[in-house]
């Protein structure tokens, strides 16, 4: 596997070894992925395949990751991602 290392907020992160918690792509051209690194860092990657556009990365806290997950539109993936993070979501 190709190593995917990036620097986010001064931290060197190896995303090739990170667990993919949530992923959503739009027709293969743009998407968002939430990773948890082996050291426990949570990273949101906004990726693109469009020429001239760059991927962006953001470190996030567990609380902000949960809030971000709840904004996504795929309940089945949200439940699986929450479980992977060790969170229990209660039905309203």
General description of the model:
By secondary structure, this protein is an alpha+beta fold. The protein has one domain. It contains two helices and six strands. It has helices spanning 62-71, 75-84; strands at residues 5-8, 11-14, 19-26, 30-36, 42-48, 56-60. A four-stranded antiparallel sheet has the order 3-4-5-6. A two-stranded antiparallel sheet has the order 1-2. The longest helix has 10 residues, at 62-71.
Summarize the structure.
Helix content is 22%, strand content 38%. With 92 residues, it is α+β, with helices and mostly antiparallel strands.
Write the layout of secondary structure elements.
Elements (H helix, E strand, L loop, with lengths): L4 E4 L2 E4 L4 E8 L3 E7 L5 E7 L7 E5 L1 H10 L3 H10 L8
Antiparallel strand pairs: 1-2, 3-4, 4-5, 5-6
């Amino acid at each position: 596997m190709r190593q995917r290392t990036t620097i986010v907020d001064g931290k060197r992160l190896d995303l090739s070894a990170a667990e993919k918690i949530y992923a959503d792509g739009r027709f293969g051209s743009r998407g968002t992925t939430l990773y948890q690194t082996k050291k426990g860092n949570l990273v949101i990657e906004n990726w693109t395949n469009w020429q001239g556009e760059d991927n962006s990365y953001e470190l996030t806290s567990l609380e902000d990751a949960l809030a971000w997950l709840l904004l996504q539109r795929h309940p089945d993936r949200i439940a699986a991602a929450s479980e992977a993070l060790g969170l229990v979501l209660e039905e309203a």
